[in-house]
Specification:
Layout lengths: L10 H9 L6 H17 L5 H17 L10 H15 L1 H8 L16 H17 L2 H12 L5
Helix pairs in contact: 2-3, 3-4, 3-5, 4-5
Length: about 150
């Protein structure tokens, strides 16, 4: 059993501090869970890239919804539930259903059944990104530049 040092904070303690305003601590959450969430998502979606996208969406959603986390519960269970839902029903679902490992659309139509909708969503997401507060854009950039590939 690995013991945490007395100075290492639990996930729940870190979340409490983030909610209190120390948003830079979210980087510790990313460091703790990024590889694990990508591996978890990889079991559900077809490609490594899709798994990375799922993990990135999970971090964005968890950051945006930290206020709804119940402090008497385990943070790990909460974030894995978000990951599962994102892989099953979010963008990971579209990628899981629509593409093979090499990224070729399975229906052969060029855009796929949901291709135009996905393109519209991507454009909308970019517009939303540009409207975000600087702190959220910094988090998004951190996630984009620190993708872990396993």
């Amino acid at each position: 059993m690995v013991r945490k040092s007395s100075t290492e904070k639990t996930d729940e303690e870190i979340v409490r501090l983030i909610i209190a305003g120390d948003v830079e601590l979210f980087a510790q959450i990313i460091d703790r869970y990024q590889t694990k969430l990508i591996a978890y998502a990889r079991r559900i979606v077809f490609s490594q890239q899709a798994a990375g996208d799922v993990a990135q969406n999970v971090f964005i959603k968890s950051y945006q919804n930290l206020q709804s986390f119940k402090m008497n519960k385990k943070f790990s269970s909460w974030i894995y539930r978000i990951a599962h839902n994102e892989a099953e029903f979010g963008n990971g679902f579209e990628q899981r259903r629509g593409q093979s490992e090499d990224g070729v659309l399975q229906d052969g139509s060029g855009m796929g059944r949901h291709g135009m909708r996905n393109l519209d969503e991507q454009i909308s997401n970019r517009i939303i990104y540009l409207k975000r507060a600087p702190g959220e854009r910094a988090l998004f950039n951190y996630l984009s530049y620190n993708k872990t590939v396993i």
